[in-house]
Design goal:
With 427 residues, this protein is α+β, with helices and mostly antiparallel strands. It is built from 13 helices and 23 strands. Strand 19, helix 10 and strand 20 form a beta-alpha-beta unit. It binds adenosine-5'-triphosphate.
Amino acid sequence: MEKIVSLCKRRGFVFPGSEIYGGLAGTWDLGPMGIGLVDNIKREWLRRFVSSREDMYGVKSSILMNSKIWEASGHINFFVDPMVDCKKCKSRFRADKIDVKNGCSNCGAHDFTEARSFNMMFKTHAGPVEDSSTEVYLRPETAQGMFVNFKNVLDTMRPKLPFGLAQVGRAFRNEITPGNFIFRTREFEQMEVEYFVREQDWKKYFEMWHKEMRAWAEDLGISGVSDREVPEEERAHYSGRTVDIDFDYPFGREELWGLAYRQDFDLSQHSKFSGQELTYHDEETKEKITPHVIEPSFGLERTMLAVLLSAYHEDGDRTVLKLKPKLAPYKVAVFPLVANKPQLVEKAREIFLSLKAGGHNLNPVFDDRGNIGKRYYAQDEIGTPWCVTVDYQTLEDDTVTVRDRDTAEQERVSAKDLETYFVDRLL
Ligand code: ATP
């Protein structure tokens, strides 16, 4: 874990939030490489689960929503974690995550207060008046934004069951103990689907989404994934069944993504609290029904962490991130063999600019600093799949060397064929 944290800092993936002021617990910032990686993960998610399917619709709802939504959803009453305080050092812990018998991790004491409920929603005020009538919450999940727009999408798009709403966006949770790098933070991004089905079909679509989630983990190169059937007493109040997709992190097996059968809980509650009818007219049976919901929920930063951990390799003295090429922030790096030969630099710049203009999301980078070996090592560490070097032979026959990140082998490729060469390998 320390190696990943250090690589992320050193190479511009993830920086501690507010670092020059000593940081702010539970927050991390993405650097240029981090943005490159998460944008590629998000794009893959949207392509796979939304644009390539005909039963999915995107929405983007506000982070601030009417507080009644959180009453209806049960978050005001139930979105709580049990919290205990250490009587000696006053540190606060999640009662279900601390080993009470072996003592508190800060001071070793065994003396804790009784567990109390702690609501994890961040509260603020909308407008200048700070009283209970202006209280609003930062959303703790994107899901509710889909339920409250169910009727709007039904009325405008006229979808047929089964269909899903999808959203990518930020969520906020006042976690009692954030930690393990970007695994548990107080602000993060979710990618969620609310998939509406007829009640009698829920098991079939639960299985479908379960398979989809496992297949996506494989497609992203995430290894070490397992399922955990969540027992009833641990499930969220709305869930009729939950399967966690767990990942073997260096700190243990923990949740990566969650799959829940939310039944008709949310639509029924919002119907009751808003007074609006949130039903679907089933043309087959000529009945109005309240659809049931299957929810695959993905955390973006946890996905990034699992991708990085799965891709991390040490090969002799080099560190290589074996990212799937489609996830790599840069697909190609272009170098002149040496920086002090203007003809080589000029040719390398020309290749770099033509790949950049090419429109295939290769996102090439140019580098002429230091020696070639160091440049290769730097690209290996950020997962760039290919390095192109312009050398003296290039000036004679217009071929360049292409070095493969995983094998470190090189082959000569004609400069004019480079774009096709990479696009063909971009899986
Ligand atoms: P945990 O048990 O780890 O607290 P959870 O069961 O509360 O997670 P869900 O409510 O199912 O999580 O949220 C859906 C997804 O959002 C999770 O699978 C995870 O990927 C992500 N997620 C949840 N909480 C956090 C957090 N504090 N930091 C980063 N990602 C998170």
